[in-house]
Structure to design on (269 residues):
């Protein structure tokens, strides 16, 4: 029985390409200005591809899809190193770029939900299913997006890469979710010693076996596997656009094509 569900954020709750395109572009602009290479279109393209965009096309399993802000910047720094572009203080430059990316997310990210999130969360809560977010993004950016979409207060637990020791696919976020959240178990009066009591609710800690993970990437499915969660793959393209490794980690679990479909699926599990 599933009594808790964790959701990835990008491309699960939030349309990833719409949100991240402008922040990535602004951060690459910043890096090129600092390097005095604003007109180097080849370098611009290489940096954007390293982050996760080829033009407006989002690249599957790229840092912006499955990594942290630090991973995005690190991929860009690898491009500079591969092209022997001199950066006087690489550590400082990377920190500045990561900070700029964070600010750009808060300022320029467009928050478009993938579906009727409020309905989904309300329906799950009506079934006494606890809900949480497990994302590789930062807490500030995540809260900004959830608040813009009007669902921040509907989650019982919000877990981000900068609030745990090890981000996904390590199991840390799942362990924290299980520790923080509890689920109401309702007993009918038939199981109670006094017929005058109709129901009773008690708080019980969640176990990983009672938690599902809903996500759109191989990294999310690896996280579910590593933590012992039920893995639910959200394939909104309808084309199972995932690599061979992802197909292996998805084997034996569930696939849905709309975020709203999770309600009916969890009811049956």
């Amino acid at each position: 029985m599933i009594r808790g569900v964790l959701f990835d954020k990008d491309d699960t709750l939030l349309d990833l390409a719409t949100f991240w395109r402008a922040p990535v572009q602004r951060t690459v602009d910043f890096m090129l200005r600092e390097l005095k290479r604003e007109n180097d279109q080849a370098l611009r393209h290489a940096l954007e591809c390293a982050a996760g965009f080829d033009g407006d096309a989002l690249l599957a399993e790229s840092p912006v899809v499955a990594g942290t802000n630090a991973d995005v910047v690190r991929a860009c720094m690898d491009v500079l190193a591969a092209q022997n572009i001199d950066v006087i203080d690489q550590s400082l430059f990377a920190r500045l770029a990561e900070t700029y990316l964070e600010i750009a997310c808060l300022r320029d990210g467009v928050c478009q939900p993938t579906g009727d999130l409020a309905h989904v969360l309300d329906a799950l809560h009506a079934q006494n299913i606890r809900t949480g977010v497990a994302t590789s993004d930062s807490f500030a950016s995540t809260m900004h997006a959830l608040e813009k979409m009007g669902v921040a207060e509907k989650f019982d637990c919000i877990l981000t890469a900068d609030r745990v020791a090890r981000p996904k696919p390590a199991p840390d976020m799942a362990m924290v979710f299980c520790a923080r959240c509890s689920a109401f178990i309702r007993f009918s009066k038939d199981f109670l010693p006094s017929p005058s009591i109709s129901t009773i609710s008690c708080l019980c800690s969640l176990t990983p076996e009672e938690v599902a993970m809903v996500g759109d990437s191989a990294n999310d499915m690896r996280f579910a596997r590593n933590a012992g969660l039920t893995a639910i793959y959200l394939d909104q393209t309808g084309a199972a656009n995932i690599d061979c490794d992802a197909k292996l980690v998805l084997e034996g679990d569930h696939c849905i094509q709309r975020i709203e479909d999770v309600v009916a699926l969890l009811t049956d599990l």
User: Anything to note?
Assistant: Residues 16-35 form the longest helix (20 residues). The chain has eleven helices and ten strands. Residues 16-108 form one domain.
